[in-house]
Amino acid sequence: MAISFVLLILMVWLAADQPPKPPTLVQKEKSKNLDKQSSFQDFLRTCKFLLKNANFLIVTIAGSIIYHVNTGQYTIMTQLMTKVLRGSNYDVDIMSSYSTTLMSAGGVIGSLVGGKIVNMSKRYKVQVIVMALLATLTSGLVLTAYHYNSYQAMFAMNVVFGFSTRSYTVSLIEILTQTTYPINESFVMTVFNATGCFVTIIVAELGRLVYNNSGGFWMLTFQTGFAFIGLLLTITISNSVQRFDAETMLRGDTQESREDTSLLHES
Fold first, then answer.
1. What does pTM read for this prediction?
2. What is the pLDDT of residues 180-204, one digit of tens each?
3. Residue 264, strand partner residues
C-alpha cells in the first residue's frame, strides 16, 4: 500500500493532463471536439452502439476470460502448492509467494515487450492470437506439472503464463481503440471494464464451484478449458484498423511525421 501511495503522489506531481502536442493526427482531430458538451442521450447512444458492436463484445468476453484465468492462477497457488510440496521441507506460503512473484515478473516483461512489438509491427490480431495460444499451452503445462508434483516446472510455466496474458492484454486494448474509433478511448475502456466484470464474475463463480467440489486438478483443467475458449474467441476478432485508416486519410500526401511526446511536466 505504501508503494502504491508513493507512485500515486509521483504521478500527480510529475504527470501532465496531456502531452504538449497530440502524438497522432487523429488524436489532434479528436481534441477539437473535447470542449463540446455531450448530453445524457449521447452517453446512452454511445453505450448502445458499443453493446451492439459484435467485435466489441467478442473482445470483452475474450479479454475477461483471459483476465480471469490469470487472476485465478494467482488465487489458487497456495492451495496447489500445498499438494505439490506435501512431504517436503519447503514452506508452502513462501513457495507460493515465489510462484506468484515470478508470474508477476513475467507479466511486467510481457507488458513491456508486448507493447514494443505491437507498436513496431502493428499486427495486433496476430499478437493476441499468439499470446492466447501461449497462455492456453502454458496453462495446460501448469496442469501437467501439478499432476506430477513438479514445483520447478510450475514456477517456469507461471513465468511464461504471466508474460503471455499481460502481452495479450496490451494488444487487446490496442484492438479496442482501433475498432471503436472515433469513440473516446477512456469511455471505451470504461464500458469494456464494466461489461467485462459481469463475464469475470460468472467465470469466477463457475471456477469456485469446480474447485470446491473437485479440487485443484479439475480447477486447473477448468482454467485451461476457458483459456482455450478465449483463444477461439480471439481468432474471430476483427482485423479492422479504423484509427490507422483515419490517420492515413488525414496525412494525405503530406506524410507529416508525428513524434511521441512525454506526459511528464517539462522542467
1. 0.77
2. 877 777 788 888 888 888 888 888 8
3. 15
